[in-house]
Amino acid sequence: xxxxxxxxxxxxxxxxxxxxxxxxxxxxxxxxxxxxxxxxxxxxxxxxxxxxxxxxxxxxxxxxxxxxxxxxxxxxxxxxxxxxxxxxxxxxxxxxxxxxxxxxxxxxxxxxxxxxxxxxxxxxxxxxxxxxxxxxxxxxxxxxxxxxxxxxxxxxxxxxxxxxxxxxxxxxxxxxxxxxxxxxxxxxxxxxxxxxxxxxxxxxxxxxxxxxxxxxxxxxxxxxxxxxxxxxxxxxxxxxxxxxxxxxxxxxxxxxxxxxxxxxxxxxxxxxxxxxxxxxxxxxxxxxxxxxxxxxxxxxxxxxxxxxxxxxxxxxxxxxxxxxxxxxxxxxxxxxxxxxxxxxxxxxxxxxxxxxxxxxxxxxxxxxxxxxxxxxxxxxxxxxxxxxxxxxxxxxxxxxxxxxxxxxxxxxxxxxxxxxxxxxxxxxxxxxxxxxxxxxxxxxxxxxxxxxxxxxxxxxxxxxxxxxxxxxxxxxxxxxxxxxxxxxxxxxxxxxxxxxxxxxxxxxxxxxxxxxxxxxxxxxxxxxxxxxxxxxxxxxxxxxxxxxxxxxxxxxxxxxxxxxxxxxxxxxxxxxxx
Length: 578
Description:
The chain is mainly alpha-helical. The protein is built from 25 helices and 6 strands.
């Protein structure tokens, strides 16, 4: 199964020689344009991951952890996966912040932002002796503008961490097995990254544990040769020992939640299936595009890159490609819930996405090598990255303000023709109040709205904000509008310090949360519309709720059959709050 760049097992036990990525012929005097491209790509990648991040609303699955940490202590969190699949380590971190009274949107996003930026730095550094500088520079460019990786870095879910940890784990195992540098360092790094990624998300193990099989089979083959049998047996013993260490660590973290929630977990297996069409949509999302011809071009570059690297480094290609194929096959065979939707498989296969983009970069560099002038080649690479960015979905995300970039209208599918949140949209009549807000300068007004559920199917805000271009916050309706399940988390929770979500009860007592207007929504909104997709919980009795608010804040400044609006004291209509 394996054929390394140089023999991984030698009779004298000596480590194989390192092959530098610089062997492909990049001279020192022609390296600076590629270093310039790499640095610019890094800056762009950091910007895309940070832009408007502090103003983003928590949406959809980001709330799983919040709901769990409010009703459970640390032991309860660590001992269950939960029906809604919260991430245990992240939820423990959030619970710690909650106990300190410091849980906020920014604190929830910060670990994933750091992981997303770390990938841009760690990836080229980790493979500097395997991949040439031009490929590394273009690779960082592709990582930087990848819509999927940008999204992972901006959402309070574990996928950005899985992407960087999974990639590092696979490379660390390879370097350990091939005796590249200090084996103890690589072994320790592998155990830490595999354990952490597996604790974050079980499906990451389908990729990070694969090197045991890949190199184990190769080592068993070496045992059949008398000339390498002794070294092969030693290597096999080391593989078994490392496997015992990592499996023991994983057992400590995962045994209890697996035992406690085995029925829940098994109930989610065999639920749904991928289709050829969903696999195609998955590939499009991994490339970050929607066009079939551009997909064909990028796939051709990927295949060309695989061929080029295979000629120089068969072991690296064999390991990463087999990990990709086997991992995806295992995930598809498990048939987890919702796997028929492309974004789900994209998230579960996060550890191998950097490698796919690496092969695309290698294929593109193979074409650019035909350009004699290095500066011209780098300029063409930069233009290609710019064109790929424009062809992707992100130009449609980054209008200001846009506090809903995690919403399914942006993340379910990059092609509006295949995205049900675009094709099934019936926003309905827009209140004249929002149309009046659109006449004011963007960012000049903040509205706080209630009741509201921060789930993509029940929030019209991404479409409304694109119309009125003002800042939005939400408020918990309980207990003013009665006590029910219409809020994202209990109004009595004391450890949350969310900047984008306030409490209606506090507003009636004089708080404004930096808002100019309070908007009461009289009716629920759903997508798809109509009775076939009802609001998931009871809707408050808004007539009585409006009367309570009016008694405290005075007569509303605007009313129609959709909303009732109250001006909040102490705020001028032109003030800015972000």
